[in-house]
Amino acid sequence: MVEIKSDAAMDAMREAGRVVARSLAAAKEAARIGVSLRELDDAARTVLAEAGADSPFLGYRPSFASLPRGGLHLRQRRRGARRPDRLPAARR
């Protein structure tokens, strides 16, 4: 069944999309070599908070993953990465 959205619902979705776009832009702007994932997360969360919004994904723990990011840190450490929470340096 297709649900027809009201003008008010469309306006709310449009504004939510703008807030998400601003939070992604803030994270992208903050992304530099050596910046932690937490710092990127904080940049995005600040924009959300300023807009009076929050993320439905905060605290989300999928049933199929025992650790956040599914053990990504363990795999990176085995490969010799020193700081798995940091962006890697660009390869030349």
UniProtKB/TrEMBL annotation:
Residues 82-92 have a biased composition (Basic and acidic residues). InterPro entries: Creatinase/aminopeptidase-like. Residues 67-92 are annotated as: Disordered. It comes from the Bacteria. Residues 72-81 have a biased composition (Basic residues). This is Methionine aminopeptidase. It comes from Streptomyces sulfonofaciens.
